[in-house]
Amino acid sequence: MLDNTPNLQDEAARQFQICNSCRYCEGYCDVFPQLFALPEMTAASATHLANLCHNCRGCYYACQYSPPHEFDLNLPAVLAELRQDTWERHARPQALARVFHSHGVAVAAALIAGFALLFFLMATLRPESGEGFYAYLAHNAMVAIFAPAFLLPLAGLAYSLRSYWREIGGGRITWASLRHMGSSVARMKNLSGGADQGCNFEQGARYSNARRYAHQATLWGFLMCFAATSVATLMHYGLGWEAPYPFWSPPKLLGVPGGILLCLGTGALAWLKLRADPELGAARVWGGEMAFVLLLFTVSATGLALYAATGTGAVPALLAIHLGAVFAFFVLTPYTKMVHGFYRTAALLARR
Amino acid sequence: MLQYDVVVVGGGNAALCAAIEAAEAGARVVILESAPEHMRGGNSRHTRNFRCMHHGPLSVLTDTYGEDEYYDDLLRVTKGQTDPTLARLAIRDSEACLPWMERHGVIFQGSLSGTLSLDRTNAFFLGGGKALVNAYYACAEDLGVTIRYNAEVLHVDLSDGRFHSVTLADGEQIAGRAVVLASGGFQADLDWLTRAWGPGAENFLIRGTPYNRGVVLRDVLDQGAQSVGDPTQCHCVAIDGRAPKFDGGIVTRLDCVPYALVVNRDGDRFYDEGEDVWPKRYAIWGRLVAAQPDQIAYAITDQKAQGLFMPPVFAPVKAETLGGLAQALGLSGDALEKTVARYNAACQDGSFTPGVLDGLATNGLEPPKTNWARPLDTPPYYGYMLRPGVTFTYLGLKVSERAQVQGAHGPLPNVWAAGEVMAGSILGQGYLAGFGMTIGTVFGRIAGQEAASHAG
């Protein structure tokens, strides 16, 4: 697909031209008003609009020109392909992005490798003493593994985003653009269908808010889990208050409901994805997308299971599995669907 | 033979409104849509708004649009060719229709960019007419209406002056206590168009669905139903000559005429391009072009006009000289240059203001250009080919105020009609944007209520 960038751009430009002469979809999302305001279509504009598109599919089901009409409009699909192309083009190394975006099997293999690595480490680095999880893997060992596994991919992602920002000419970030982005993300406005009726996904031409709510649960659940880890790090280094933490402590109060939300959200997203038409997205990466959702589900489900198993003999095995999943998730961040959140946030921030 | 309370022939807006009303009244209803599912909805899938009377702001509509103003707008475009009773009924009922539409799943949006002049009179559908059609089909399904696609009705049995059953293309018969005919005009039957218009009709493009072939209309007229309207009258606009033969819809329109010079095949002008703003004139230009040799015309602009009108879907022909443009368009260069020279010489000084009648008119030119008349002198020059594009024909069934179809000897007791198939009663000629959906919704609802009440 990377070799086809110019063809994809041409196809997007062809479809945009028809949209621009019609404009019936103006009220669905942010893409159309920005499209109609463009003096002319450029490759950078097409890339920007593709990353702004949330794949709500409203414009497809409302389209009088969708196939088999000879104009053959399928904007959600061509924009999904173009987004995919953006993510793979700006990733370093590109080859990893190509493999993990398209192949669910590769994601599964990385997950199993994560399990294996953690089982191996826990078997060979078993500490003399330690409390809670640190009885199985010492705190220093965990930091030595997870700090680079978290920070290196993040640095790679930052590089990619900078390169994307330059390509689209994102401009200076202002308070106003931050506020706009924040409110769009918090309400998932671009999946609202423009009138809160929701988008078209699992029920074809009927609107539904199921995907929007499932995505919100996933997003907020993820952020709460991330906050739980961050707070725990601060408590560890700042206050000298080391894990394990009791239930009535910030890491648990954020992490437990966050994990439940993430579990429910990703489970619902996977279920909805099975019911939606794959031809309205980037069909070639369906497997990679599904594997990514299931990876997030595995991270949250094993985290909750580990908490539930506190004090039982299942803890060491569950700990290796959970940490293995987290490890795979971190390492794959720049090369999976995880990047969509970063690119889309950037697209919502861009003032062009 | 399958038996229903109400058989609805057609699958567009009027048919759906009738089916929903009938089903809500408790009737067992079947919709017979001749198109396959992905093409369902007739011409409604190409529409975008609903013209609505209202007192004070209503949903997305601003200000007030009263009955008399609405009726005057209709008289102006139809030049009085309307049934005043039916027209006023459609206008008055439109106000109650809008909330009904919202309750049945239609979502409105503010007036689209480029159509600000309509934000008081026309409520736009979010996503356009196909989204409306989708909402109504979902609603009908939820109400238990049976929906049959690829179900083309060839014959409506009206023996003994009342409805008994319909016969589908595959020979299947479906019986009902009442029928609602909402099967559209005959514009997609090019032979019929040619019989009405003459051989020039072969050059017409059909903007909407290829499934409106007037089969049911013909069949019912042949059985003595009374007709209204003139077979040569239709909603006919000037569209891009490169549009598909059928189903090109909204994007094939060309909005450049007020800022252009329009010539025919021989390079001659034939009408005042600047008579009024485009939303008030687009519907007469189809007939104007249809009256020209070969049913073709060319709108010529120069660089100055770029950006003044909605972008066309097909790129215009472009050339550095008028002669070059004429050659690319297949016109005589001499003729075009002479026409432009005469026009340029007739242009006067004054201020040019797009979008409003600026009075910048030609002097001593026949026909004149009465607004936006600037010399055509700044290359590159652009050429847009125009053809007549038919939306729907006006010849239709005569109906009563209760949408009841009139037979040779009075009303048919269990036959109703709604939508384009009877719109000719109200639209004798001309067109008012968004009024087709008003007629379809108002009379579709009435027909559905009446048919259900008869069947019950």
Automatic annotation (TrEMBL), chain A:
* InterPro entries referenced in this protein's UniProt entry, alphabetically: Citrate_utilization_prot_B, NarG-like_sf
* Alphabetized UniProt keyword annotations: Membrane, Transmembrane, Transmembrane helix
Segments spanning the bilayer are: 99-121, 133-159, 217-239, 254-274, 286-308, 314-335
By what name is this protein known?
Answer: Citrate/tricarballylate utilization protein
UniProtKB/TrEMBL annotation, chain B:
For this protein, what is any one GO molecular function term? oxidoreductase activity
- Which of UniProt's keywords are assigned here? FAD, Flavoprotein, Oxidoreductase
Among InterPro entries, the record links this protein to: CobZ, FAD-dep_OxRdtase_2_FAD-bd, FAD-oxidoreductase_2, FAD/NAD-bd_sf, Succ_DH/fumarate_Rdtase_cat_sf
The answer to whether UniProt assigns keyword Flavoprotein to this entry is yes
| Keyword hit for Flavoprotein | yes
Cofactors: FAD
This one is known as Tricarballylate dehydrogenase
